[in-house]
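Supplementary notes (optional reading)

For those who missed the lab, this is the record we used. Protein: Type II secretion system protein. Length: 111 residues.
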Amino acid sequence: MRNNNKGFTLFDSILSFSMLLTILFFVLPMINQVKLEQHILSVRSKMIETLYNEIIDILHTTEETIITKPINISNTNATISLSLKDNTWTGCITWNNSKNATESSCLHVKK
């Protein structure tokens, strides 16, 4: 038998290319999903931080018992609702995330 060492055959090249495409077709959607989840977590963190700051401001500045106001954070519309009941401020923020799911978070602070 004769030994042929002239390089890759066409079959080797096609096999390598198909393996590369298979890996790319599985990895790229996962990377996009991770980036989307990262954005959702980032917006969630900013929303909760904004809600916290609003509650702190309300504690020292107003005597109103119910406050609702719309805000926009990172190109995402949200609504903050603050209410005073039994000497406790309850603040809730509601928004639609990048997956178009409604999210909300609430914080409670004693006055």
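If you only remember one thing from this example: The first strand starts at residue 66 and ends at 73.
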